[in-house]
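sanity check this:
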Amino acid sequence: MLKDQFGREITYLRISVTDRCNLRCVYCMPPEGVAWQPHGSILTFEEIAEIVRIAAENGVNEIRLTGGEPLVRADLPILVKMISSIPGIQDISLTTNGLLLEKMLPALVDAGLKRINVSLDTLKPEKYARITRGGSFEKVWRGLETADQAGLSPIKINSVAMRGVNDDEIIDLAKLTITRPWHVRFIELMPIMNQALWGEGFPAPSEIYYSIQNMMELLEPLGLKKCSDVVGSGPAQEYQLRGALGKVGFISPLGEQFCERCNRLRLTADGHLRPCLVDDLEVAVLPAIRSGQPILPLIKAAVALKPESHELTHNAHTTGRCMMQIGG
């Protein structure tokens, strides 16, 4: 079992399979964009599977595939199949923007995908196009319906709560859980390479933060009740609205830190283990795996480097990578 210096057991590995994305969300990518990693700098499927195998031998049992947008990586079901065959891996999930979900979901499910999280910050097509700088709400919604029909459970929707952007839709997003067994999770905006102006029609980034306390106060009249049956090992605090089939979750890296129960490492597409989402410290594994060097010491080194907590509350911001380059 991998255990950090604060006694936290590391059982969860988030893997970014690509830094590329078919959207340009205002809070995820700087206005000027980012340079993509060259193909040769990205971990191959075989390299990813080898890292997962070693991690699984040492207690990791949950894998989440992220990006960029993971579904733009060619032949992703092949990787899902490779990971699902590794002894010890109990859960494989995917975080996606949903644009390609309708087309790719059947092959992913056949390969062993268990769950999905879909990023969706608004139910208004015009606003969706503005936030994502050109995305199609209709394609995402069809992807969600496809996942529903395929029987994936629970389907989770990730919504970044932003004052002056989508705070007027928090109630409507939460109400999706009343008639559907979906989980809608509201995420506080994190200041990760997104502090430049977002463009016309958006408030200044310094004015956009909307806390978990704000969200819960807004939803309280709908009968929020704390849940005890949490699915997965993520950081969300889960609640249920009165009479709802699904759940409402809150992920609050600033309003109510969850660092004390963090059980994860992140693997970037270019082969760096990142002990903390919001800390630029990384351990390179790509050179070692390509030269036949042992990987386990590097995994243990990354675990040992996990900080007790992040520094966002002290106005410390990451400077090395934007969110889509980290894998969220």
In short: The two ends are 24 Å apart (CA to CA).
